[in-house]
Structure formats: C-alpha cells, structure tokens
C-alpha cells in the first residue's frame, strides 16, 4: 500500500489544491489530506469547517482520506502512519526555495520522500490568501473554489479554534 500525504492549512481548500490532490490520488493507493492548525496563526475558518469543506469537495474521489494533523513534526506523523511520500504542488521558484530544505529535512528525519507536482497553469496564481482577499473585497472567486466553499466565503468565516489545554 503506497500512502501519501498532502499537508496544508486549506483555509479554504481551492481548485489548485483539488487538482494536485486528484493527481496524487492517481499516483498512490491512498492520499491523506492532512489539515493542519498552527495556533499562532489566524484562520478564517475553524478546523472543523476546513475539514468539512475538504471532505465535501473530495467525497467523489476514491482513495482519499481527510483528517486533522496536530502541530507536531510532519516527519513523525509520516513515520507513524506509514506514509511514503509527501506531495506538494509547486507554483513558483519561491515555492521550491521554501519547500526544498523542508523536503530534505523530512527525508533525513524519517526517510519520507517529497514529490513535487507542478501546479496546473490555470491555477498557478491561486493561494487561499489571495482568494480570501478578493472575496472579501467583493470580487468573484467562483471559478477558483468549489460551490460549497464559495457559499462559506460569502457567509464569512467561522469562530476561531481554541488551542488545546495543557
Ligand atoms: P500553506 O501550507 O502555506 O498554508 P496551503 O494550505 O494553502 O498553504 O496549501 C497546502 C499545499 O497545497 C501547499 O503546500 C502547496 O503544495 C499546495 N498548493 C497551494 N496552492 C496551490 C496551487 N494553486 N496549485 C497547486 N498546489 C497548490
């Protein structure tokens, strides 16, 4: 069983993410979409809503599991879950510069490989941040997000997550 992980905050999930996840599903037996929360960061959507949006939009694809990932080491998560590859979409050389040291570190820590997939040309410019900005200013982002995400963007965000105690 070849298992891969697509990690990210997915705040919210958009078509660029979906395209890379679908391609990963064609390469691996199982793809875990690991939705992360960094409690030092501010998200528009709660973890529960980010998980719901990912699950709703990926429901029709086979071999995909959506689950939360703690804020610990991704390399350790991969070791515990028997993940052989981390799949990342690359939009630009700055994505590559950012990802390369992490990929090397993850391989040295746990032997997990990182597979880079070039982003689809139509979605090269997409980031969750830009989508939230444009939607917040009243621009149409319906070409870039699934319908259920679009609805939520129009409705505004959700209440922030509380960090776990202790
Ligand atoms: P971050 O990890 O910076 O919060 P995201 O959660 O939005 O970023 O994205 C998770 C991963 O999805 C990124 O690391 C990248 O590999 C991939 N990704 C993001 N945007 C795109 C895009 N437009 N096309 C392809 N892949 C993308």
Order of helices and strands: EHEHEHEHEHH
Average pLDDT for all residues? 94
Largest sheet at a glance?
5 strands, parallel
CATH topology: Rossmann fold
CATH class descriptor: Alpha Beta
Q: How far from one another are the termini?
A: 36 Å
> Given the structure, what is the number of helices?
6
Q: What's the number of extended β-strand segments?
A: 5
Radius of gyration: 16 Å
Unreliable runs, pLDDT <50, ≥5 residues? none
Share of β-strand residues:
15-25%
CATH superfamily assignment? HUPs
- Which hetero compounds are present in the coordinates? adenosine-5'-diphosphate
Structural class by SSE content:
alpha/beta
Please, could you describe this protein's structure?
This protein is of the alpha/beta class and 166 residues long. The chain has one domain: HUPs (Rossmann fold). The chain has 6 helices and 5 strands. It has helices at residues 15-27, 47-58, 74-81, 93-110, 128-136, 147-155, and strands at 3-8, 30-36, 64-69, 85-90, 113-118. The protein has a 5-stranded parallel sheet with strand order 3-2-1-4-5, sandwiched between helices. Helix 3 (74-81) crosses helix 4. The N and C termini lie far apart (36 Å). Adenosine-5'-diphosphate (ADP) binds next to helix 1 and strand 4.
């Amino acid at each position: 069983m070849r298992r891969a992980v697509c990690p990210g905050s997915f705040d919210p999930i958009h078509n660029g993410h979906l395209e890379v996840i679908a391609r990963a599903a064609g390469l691996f037996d199982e793809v875990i979409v690991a939705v992360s929360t960094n409690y030092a960061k501010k998200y528009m959507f709660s973890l529960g809503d980010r998980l719901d949006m990912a699950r709703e939009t990926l429901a029709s694809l086979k071999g995909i599991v959506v689950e939360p990932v703690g804020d610990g080491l991704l390399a350790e998560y991969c070791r515990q879950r028997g993940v052989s590859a981390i799949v990342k979409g690359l939009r630009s050389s700055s994505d590559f510069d950012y990802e390369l040291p992490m990929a090397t570190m993850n391989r040295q820590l746990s032997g997990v490989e990182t597979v880079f997939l070039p982003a689809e040309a139509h979605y090269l410019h997409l980031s969750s941040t830009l989508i939230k900005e444009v939607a917040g200013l009243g621009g149409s982002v319906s070409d870039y997000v699934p319908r259920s995400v679009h609805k939520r963007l129009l409705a505004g965000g959700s209440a922030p997550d509380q960090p776990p105690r202790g």
